[in-house]
Amino acid sequence: MYKPKILVTGGRGFLGKAVCKELEPLAQVISAGRDEADLRCHDQTSDILDYIDPDIIVHLAATVGGIGANKENPGKFIEENLIMGYNIIKLAKEKNVKKFVMLGTVCSYPKHCPVPFKEEDLWNGYPEETNAPYGIAKKTLMQMIQSYHKQYGFKGINLIPVNMYGPNDNFNPSSSHVIPALILKFQQAIDNGHEAVEIWGTGHASREFLYVDDCAKAIKLAILDYDKPDPVNIGTGKEITIAELAQNIQKIMGHKGSIVYNKDYPDGQPRRCLDTSKAKECFGFEATTDFDVGLTQTIEWFRNDYSNS
Hints:
Elements: E1 5-9, H1 14-23, E2 28-32, H2 42-52, E3 56-59, H3 67-72, H4 74-94, E4 99-103, H5 132-152, E5 156-161, E6 163-165, H6 178-191, E7 197-200, E8 206-207, E9 209-211, H7 212-225, E10 232-234, E11 240-241, H8 242-253, E12 259-262, H9 277-283, H10 291-307
Parallel strand pairs: 1-2, 1-3, 3-4, 4-5, 5-10, 6-9, 7-12
Antiparallel strand pairs: 8-11
């Protein structure tokens, strides 16, 4: 029986590994990173699509980072994400790819968006300033897919995942997101005799977190059962403050020192929590991983990797 070919850009990354694993029973999954093709280059992007001839593309490749990386690289983040997305969406349309899955970002939502965030609120304000270039790039690409669908019948779908976490996450302190950054900080503090851990901001901001395997399942379900270009939120619908998150990680890791909040640094967006009802309605997705269980599994993976590095 023929299995469709699915190209996963960024397939060796954090989410990419989980997506490839989730899709392998259904398809011939081809993972592509910059070693195979630099999507910033039109000709390299065209060549790899000709070589693989995929039925479906899942576009995960992105230039990303936490608050610090976003503040230091606004030009790079908007430029590289726009160029990569533009190249692969345009070429997918030209080469008649049967389905294109675009992973957007919660950073595209307005800074002061009503909570929980609803898909129809995406264009009702400017994103939080520190990650606006990344968010605007992704939102522009989402609109490109919608416009291509309207004019050319392009079969693209837009998924908006909330902040993810889990095994294989990026623990580089210069570019990691909040959960891996905190895990690394607490581990280093434990190694140094349980010294105090400094956290940027007030701790009052809230975030929603989605276990990476749950996101991979959402992508699979959308491939199977969703065909519209209208954006769909992917998350848990539950939020937690950064202070509560830090205390949870501290408890699981056994850190005995104090937590110090450095209010000279920004909180980022005040609150993030998605309305996830559309994903359930359209393709039956609901997140199933308990947050403390997911955190524990992430910390266990990190400690095994950390101790062997």
